Every structure is written in C-alpha cells, then in structure tokens.
Amino acid sequence: MATEIVYEQGDATAPRGSGRPRIIAHVCNDSGGWGRGFVLALSRRWSAPETAFRRWYRDRQGNDFALGAVQYVEVEPGLWVANMVGQHGMRTAAERAAGVGVPVRYEAIDAALASLGDRALALGASVHMPRIGCGLAGGRWEVVEPLVTRRLTGRGVPVTVYDPA
C-alpha cells in the first residue's frame, strides 16, 4: 500500500507524529566530515549521531562504512537518526561558486534508502527528513524524490519531508 510524501514546513530534527517509531534520515559524506549543513541541527539536539558517525568513519577499515551504507543511532526511545553515506567528498565554497561537480551520489542514496525502507518496515516506523542530498551535496530534489517514492512510500513507509520555516 503506497503512501504519498507529506511536505511540511518545520524542523526535521523534531519529527511530528506519535504512536509509532520515527527515523530521521539525512545524507553524510564519505570523507568523515561533520560540521556543516543539516548535521549541525542534529548535533545541537543530540551528540550521539556525530559521535557514532566519527567512530564509524575512523574504524572504516573494519566495518561497512562506504557509499550507500547506513548507520542507525537511537537518540531517544523510539527515535533513530539514520546516517546515510550518499555524498563523495566535499566541495569548498569556491568550488560551489564555480559550479564544480557536485558530491551527491544518487546511486548511494538509492542504496541507503533501500536499507532505510527495510529498517522502517521492520520497526513499523515513519521516516522524517530534509530534502536529503540537495543541500551541500548539491543534488536535485527532482532526482531524489523518485528514489524516496520507490524505496519508502512505494513500500508503505510514511515519509515527511521538512522544509525550513
């Protein structure tokens, strides 16, 4: 039973709804950087997602850290953050201004969303996110949205996308 993506203005780190587990999904880079974009909002609310991501990256030789991988961090009872690796490297402000290629990797976001869909269905969870991959990663929502539809809402996972108020 497919559902539609719900779009709301608000803060994706404060997901709306109750009565079911919730997962906040966002895109991380594969170079271990954490300090700009949506992750700052996460870190203001909880320290665990950043701590777990940095450890995951540091120990990457012995774990599954790679493009397309997902790390789930429980930040409150029934509330997880999904650190999804969907960006290859980072661009400087000068590179962004010059239009240098974007670091988003749509195939990695697709793989991460497939994992997220499995986890959400297993937990009976809803998924909450900003427009993943479309900020510093430089992606386009018209490319990401069909991935969210196929991997999540098309499988019956409720999804809310938050745009800043």
TrEMBL record:
Catalytic reaction annotation: an N-(ADP-alpha-D-ribosyl)-thymidine in DNA + H2O = a thymidine in DNA + ADP-D-ribose
Protein name, UniProt field: Macro domain-containing protein
PROSITE patterns, per database record: MACRO
Alphabetical list of SUPFAM superfamilies matching this protein: Macro domain-like
SMART domains: A1pp
UniProt-listed PANTHER family: ADP-RIBOSE GLYCOHYDROLASE OARD1, PROTEIN C6ORF130
InterPro entries documented for this protein: ADP-ribose_metab_enzymes, Macro_dom, Macro_dom-like
Organism: Streptomyces aureoversilis
Domain Macro as annotated: residue spans: 1-165
